[in-house]
Specification:
The protein is α+β, with helices and mostly antiparallel strands and about 80 residues long. It is built from 4 helices and 3 strands, in the order βαααββα. Strands 1-3-2 form a 3-stranded antiparallel β-sheet. Strand 2 and strand 3 form a beta hairpin. The longest helix has 14 residues. The radius of gyration is 12 Å and the shape is globular.
Length: about 80
């Protein structure tokens, strides 16, 4: 199911992840680390794929429509465990 958030919020989530989280998510999903970075706004498509991220201009860095929230959900789960 698609989800819309601001680009700044997506970046805040990525920046809040503990070290090694990108690799952990990539391993679980059997994708490259760069693919996960691209999901969070990276643009290196030589070493990673596009993950259904669509950015529209607007406040707070613009609006991001995520076609699949699996990476976001995993990142939020990691953050919840970090805070617990």
């Amino acid at each position: 199911m698609a989800k819309t958030i601001t680009f700044n919020e997506l970046r805040r989530i990525k920046e809040s992840l503990p070290e090694g989280s990108i690799h952990k998510i990539a391993d679980k999903l059997n994708v490259t680390d760069q693919t996960v970075r691209n999901y969070f706004g990276g643009t290196n498509y030589e070493f990673g794929k596009n993950c259904g991220l669509h950015i529209e201009p607007g406040p707070n860095g613009g609006y991001v429509v995520l076609d699949d929230t699996q990476i976001l959900d995993m990142a939020l789960e990691i953050l919840e465990k970090k805070e617990a």
